[in-house]
Amino acid sequence: MSSNTERSLVLLKPDAVRRGLLGEILSRFERKGLAIEALELRTMDAELADQHYSDHVEKAFYPPLKEFMTSGPLAALVLSGDEVIDVVRAMIGATDGRKAAAGTIRGDFSLSNRENLVHASDSPESAKRELDLWFPGRF
């Protein structure tokens, strides 16, 4: 990896799986030139949800978020590339799909703030923490 190469955890949420959008979203990342270093289809359990969203557990919006994130399979992946964290966040768009710009994943496919298809690490520190949670000892 070059000095600007980073890794990011990306979750293609249960709504992306349910709607059959995995191929579309993954192909956007691949066409951008990002590398998929790991990819697993799995279901988030309650304990992992609490760990992953530890900053939000006490907030009012968390219980419905937890219910949604544990509602079915999701795809957990590790993407790498030059400044991948910023690149992926630009590609996925604003959190609220109703306000996300056209051309972004959320702007093109989401009409929700909660069911917004994709989670991506927001900093190198969160990427390290999240990668350790989802792919322990691998990255």
List keywords for this structure.
4 strands, globular, 7 helices, 40% helix, 139 residues, alpha+beta, Alpha-Beta Plaits
Description:
The protein has one domain (5-134): 2-Layer Sandwich (Alpha-Beta Plaits). Helices cover 40% and strands 22% of the residues. The protein has a 4-stranded antiparallel sheet with strand order 2-3-1-4, with helices on both faces. The radius of gyration is 14 Å and the shape is globular. It has helices at 14-18, 22-32, 46-52, 62-69, 84-92, 105-109, 124-134; strands spanning 5-12, 35-43, 73-82, 118-120. By secondary structure, the chain is α+β, with helices and mostly antiparallel strands. It has 7 helices and 4 strands.
What's a concise summary of this model?
40% of the residues lie in helices and 22% in strands. By secondary structure, the chain is of the alpha+beta class.
